[in-house]
Amino acid sequence: MMDIKKHLMQVFTLDKEILKLTEQLAELRARQQAPGGRYDGLGVQKTRNVTVQEDLSIKAMRTEEKIALAKVKLLQIETKIHASSRHLPPMQRAVITWRYICRFIWKDIAERAEMSEMQLMRVHNEALKTMEAHFKAA
C-alpha cells in the first residue's frame, strides 16, 4: 500500500511545485516591468551579448516550461487515479476523488461524507488496498 500512497501524494508535491514556480514567474514578470539597473537581484546581470531584459525573458520562458511540464505530469497522475478508482465502491471512489483530485482536507471530506474522520480513514485505507492492484496495472 505504500507505493500507491507515495504515488498519490505526488499530486500535493506537484501542486506545491507549480505554486512555487508560478510565484517565481510573477516575480520575473514584475522585474521585467520594473526600471532596470545593472543587476536585478535574481542573479541576472548584464553581459556583453545579452541585456538584463533578455535574460529575464529567457528565465521566464524556462519557468513557464517547467510549469507546463509539472501540469502535464499532474494531469497524467490524475488520469491514472481516475482509471484506478473506477472499480471502487461509490463512497471509496468519492473519498479518493475528493482527496487527490479536488485536494480537500480530511475534515471537509468527512463532513461531505457525513462520517467521522476515523471512519473516513478506514474507508480511505480500504480504497487504497483495492486500488493497489488496478493502479499498478494502469
How would you explain this protein's 3D organization?
With 138 residues, this protein is an all-alpha fold. It has one domain (2-137). The chain contains five helices and no strands. The chain has helices spanning 2-33, 52-85, 90-101, 106-113, 117-137. Helix 3 packs across helix 5 (117-137). The longest helix has 34 residues, at 52-85. It is elongated, with a radius of gyration of 21 Å.
List the helices and strands and how they pair.
Blueprint: H1 2-33, H2 52-85, H3 90-101, H4 106-113, H5 117-137
Helix amount: over 70%
**How many distinct domains?**
1
What best-fitting shape do the alpha-carbon axes yield? elongated
Model regions low in confidence, pLDDT < 50 over at least 5 residues: none
Main sheet specs: none
What share of residues are in beta strands? under 5%
Gist?
By secondary structure, this protein is an all-alpha fold.
